[in-house]
Amino acid sequence: MPSQPALPRHVLVLNCGSSSLKFAILDALTSEEIISGLAERLGSSTPLIKYKYQGVKKQIELEANQAHGAAIDTLVALINDHHLADHLIAVGHRVVHGGEHFTQSVLIDDDVIKGITQAATLAPLHGHANLLGISSAQASFKGLPQIAVFDTAFHQTMEKTAYLYALPYKLYTDYGVRRYGFHGTSHFYVAEQTAKLLNQSIEHSNFISAHLGNGCSVCAIKNGKSVDTSMGLTPLEGLMMGTRSGDIDPGLFNFLTTQLDYSAQQIDDLLNKQSGLLGISELSNDCRTIEEAAVAGNEKAILALDMFCYRLAKQIAAFMVPLQRLDALIFTGGIGENSDIIRAKVIAQLSFLGLDCDNTANLAARFSKQGIISSTAANVKAVVMPTNEEWVIALDAATIAQEH
Ligand code: ADP
Binding positions for Mg(2+) (predicted)? Predict the structure, then answer.
């Protein structure tokens, strides 16, 4: 991805989900957040926009059934009311799926729209929301360059051995069925920041980054490039997540359809919305709630946390195959940045790799939010590094906008 542009400029960053729209205006040079917010429950009976400007939180209720277009119209009005349009130089869109076509961020034109539309067949819910966000923003910000930044792009350096499924080859060549990986902007950003923190060049750094939020993925980064990642064709593969199952035996499909009469949609809901931490704890998908319950002795909460950490540690260990040498294990995302419990449990299971947790540093990261949490005796560093996907999008958008 491109490096930092020379001039301070403001970029509107849009992250369009199926029923939500996250937005922020950032200064691409300083990462200062000018305004940020979230339009949620779009298309429902009670859509709402919450935003923060100059430290003050406010909210605007939209009319029933209003969706992305209305949310962007309201955002335009907000931008105009606060005189924020003058400094805007670009709109950066987070696009979930770039397929094989997009290996880096691009200025959006008709061909790019075609490419995103094609990739949207692989992730229909996200893809269509992203396209809707782009067309609404194009209509509302006519003079501004619009840039697409893809969650999949960073992983396009994976080799076939890592990205193919052991399925009939034609499914790959004819339909693009392969592993793509997601959270690319986050893995890229925390790897660069960690290389800076450890004072080593990213081109010579071998890292494993664990992005642990509601969605969770691990990435093996060899000499600064993604060589493998735990998510696949969709963001369902790999780790146990908040409500997603991660890896399961695909034979489960047959069992659920023939024995329990599940439809394809019901299976999709089961695996994406009712599994993971929520499915095992039967309490919540929220790691904080589960940690509190575990401390109080709730057995299913304890099991959910233990499973989460065991499966994560197992995936990290597996990535030693492509890496061979590991410089640092990076924790990021809401859980990775905040849960000292999970970090300690994962590191404890990986001592054979040379990892060792410094308990004081691990607890101190609650306040410092960033830093090395491994002991001086450890051969491999463990690092907490806050992610900032919005800033990566803003930087890419500003750089590409300046080139055109
Ligand atoms: P998203 O993937 O939606 O961006 P986040 O990266 O914000 O989500 O991560 C959300 C997760 O982070 C939730 O499971 C939440 O419980 C967890 N989390 C946030 N703060 C803490 C904390 N202090 N301790 C443990 N988990 C936390």
Answer: 15, 389
340 catalytically annotated: no
Pairing status of strand 328-332 against strand 381-384: parallel
3-state secondary structure of 80: helix
Using alpha carbons, select from 385, 323, 390 the residue that is nearest to residue 354: 323
Tokens of 103: 């290996």
Nearest-angstrom CA–CA distance, 319 and 182: 16
Cut 0.85: pTM above it: yes
- Cβ within 8 Å of residue 404, ≥6 positions away: 107, 145
pLDDT tens digits for range 200-238: 999 999 999 999 999 999 999 999 999 999 999 999 999
286 lines ligand 1 (CB under 6 A): yes
Distance CA 162, CA 178 (A): 9
Domains in the chain with CATH codes: 10-150 (3.30.420.40), 199-384 (3.30.420.40)
Place of tokens 């410092």: 368
Atom 12 (ligand 1) nearest CA: 334
How many angstroms is it from 7 CA to the middle of ligand 1? Answer: 34
Answer whether 214 contacts ligand 1 (Cβ < 6 A). Answer: yes
What are the pLDDT digits (tens) for 103-114? 999 999 999 999
Distance (Å, rounded) from C-alpha 246 to C-alpha 47? 30
- Which DSSP state fits 32? -
Phi-psi region of 54 (alpha: psi -120 to 50; beta: other; left: phi over 0): left
